Amino acid sequence: MIVIKGVAASPGIAIGKAYTVEPEEIVVSRVEIPPESVRQEVKRFKGAIDATFRDLDQTEAKVLKMLGKEHAKLIDTHRLILSDPLITKDVSRRIAEERVNAEFALSEALERINRAFEKIQDEFFRERRHDLFDVGKRLLSHLMKQEKKTLSGIRAPAILVARNLLPSDTLNLRESDVLGFVTDLGGKTSHTAILAQSMKIPAVVGLSDASHRIKTGDELILDGDQGLIIIHPSPEAVTKYQKARIDALKEEEALDALRGAPALTADGHKVKMMVNLDGIDELKTVAALKPDGIGLFRTEYLFLNRTSAPAEDEQTKAYLAAARAFDGLPLVIRTADIGGDRTAHLGLETSKNEQNPFLGLRGIRLFLRHSELLKTQFRAILRAAGSGKVKIMLPMVTTLREIQSARRVFQQAVQELSAEGTPVNKKVELGIMVEIPAAALTLDALLEEADFVSVGTNDLIQYLLAVDRVNEDVAHLYDPFHPAVLRVLREIVETAHKRGKTVTVCGEMASDPKAAGLLVGLGVDALSVSSRMFLRIKQIIRRMSLERTREAVQQAAAQADSDAVRRVLAALDS
Questions:
Q1: Which of 5, 10, 6, 7 has its CA nearest to residue 192?
Q2: What digits encode the pLDDT tens for the residues 507-542?
Q3: For FRET with 67, which of 95, 362, 434, 528 sits at 20 to 30 Å CA-CA?
Q4: How far is it, in rounded angstroms, from Cα 19 to Cα 15?
Q5: Which residues, in sequence order, are CB contacts of 419 under 8 Å at separation 6+?
């Protein structure tokens, strides 16, 4: 029996035989094109683009029928990629200037864009490269006149094993007898993972070399909750997981019953349960959870796959849709946290020699350097604020001056809109993300200007422990239960509460079942959780005793290492 740990991409348990798919090898050779054939080669490339657009239209119709409007937005992302000048113009230019075949020019362009994606540390945005591969694969298949492989070889229920699955591959799984899938590559925020969750297909990704270790016909157990697979499981393991699968179905029914129920601890303490929103295509799914509001609306998606920043009207439309969907409930909109790794196509002047963009010009730093971006976003948010309980949050704050500067831009936006005759809610709250140790340690000063606090645990932990989360050599040192993390979180909560300000936690730690007791025991006012974990975290809160949890957290804060902290918190479940 072999157990391999990966990334939990889509929850659920699958038990069955493996069906291993060999990766499609697309070999592209460089071919010199004579001058008289260049125009025809460019025409051939444009024909492949047109054919790919037709593919996307067909796929969109399929997604609409299968999963609904919110997931059909994925095809808009693919259309944007297909329309990117780095593909539409640069490939044609390379064909003409270097006199090379379209396949080679395209593969070079795709590799250049991929290298830019690989520098991105944020998992959500790094995983968008699989959408690039998907579009590139479609284009190459048209240029090379290759038929797309199907999964027709699966003639009995099986667990699919592959090097990688692109979003378009995942959409075809429902038509095959696939119990679940495992891949060597991928992350939990990829569109492949998101589609698997929507289709309720258990999946584990990021398994490194599983496709080489597993042969078709091997018995497998796929645990999409824990992110692991078992090859050649023992009879005892099979029995255990069969029971776990039955229990999970019962648990899912129990979780569904919690939609709309208050997040009250067993001894009557109310915790606000909010949801993180990554784009308006998720509104229907998130609203169905009946949360207490949106604790973090990430607006970065509006700035992706384009050559200029989104216009005010486009932003207003997005913020209005969210405000109306959660009418009367808090909607915390974070100004875009983009940096040197995401500004290449926006026409912004940033240093080309920026070695570490995540410690460089990003978040509020970038938007204060280019204040027209900040004012445009403020104006758009203010225009939407009349339709809901909208708040604004600034990312990457380290100094009081940054908040004061942002407030001046905010007031300019208010004055401009008022002068134009646009009704403006002047009482929109302006809060900050505490995600840098400097902000945590000087929070008392920052709260002179900040109306509320939201803790971004992802970056806070990363910077506090000097650990790059995506560096596989040190990723194991990224530890939410490190005593330093616990003590800094406690300091943040105490400092904010002394000044009558609320604290929300919106990082991944808020969605971690093992951390729920820690955060509630520290006195956090609200949790902003991923939609996938929302009901499960609510269930944990409803089962806990606040008094007992506070005692455990006090004890945990006195421990010297994270293992001891975990043991203290684990005792809460006993």
A1: 10
A2: 889 999 999 999 999 999 999 998 888 999 999 999
A3: 528
A4: 12
A5: none
Written as six digits, the tokens of 232 are 């050649």
How large is the C-alpha radius of gyration of the chain? Answer: 25
Residue 530 · residue 482 · CB < 8 Å: no
pLDDT in tens, 284-303: 889 999 999 999 999 988 88
Helix (H, G, I), strand (E, B) or coil at 183: strand
> Please, which residues bridge with residue 15 across strands?
221
Count CB neighbours of 167 within 10 A.
25
**pLDDT value at residue 219:** 95
Report whether 302 contacts 315 (CB < 8 A).
Answer: yes
CA geometry: angle 570, 566, 509, nearest 5 deg:
100
- Closest by Cα among 427, 437, 533 to 491: 437
Q: Name the active-site residue from 71, 370, 482, 506.
A: 506
Whether 432 and 495 have beta carbons less than 8 Å apart is answered as: no
Which residue has 């899938």 as its token pair? 181
Dihedral pair phi/psi, residue 260, rounded to 5°: 85, -15
Tell me, yes or no, if 476 is annotated catalytic. no
Which residue of the set 130, 142, 191, 482 is catalytic?
Answer: 191
10 Å CB burial of residue 563 (0-12, 13-18, 19+) is exposed
Low-confidence ranges of the chain (pLDDT < 50): 341, 344
128-160 pLDDT per residue, tens: 677 787 788 888 888 888 766 656 567 788 999
**What pLDDT sits at residue 124?**
61
Q: Write down all domains in the chain, each with its CATH number in brackets.
A: 2-23+149-255 (3.50.30.10), 35-143 (1.10.274.10), 293-443 (3.20.20.60), 453-500+502-574 (3.20.20.60)
Residue 482 annotated as catalytic = no
**Cα(544)–Cα(390) distance, integer angstroms:** 31
Q: Which amino acid belongs to residue 467?
A: V
For the chain, the 3-state helix, strand and coil shares in percent, each to the nearest 5, are 50, 15, 35
Q: Which amino acid is at 443?
A: L
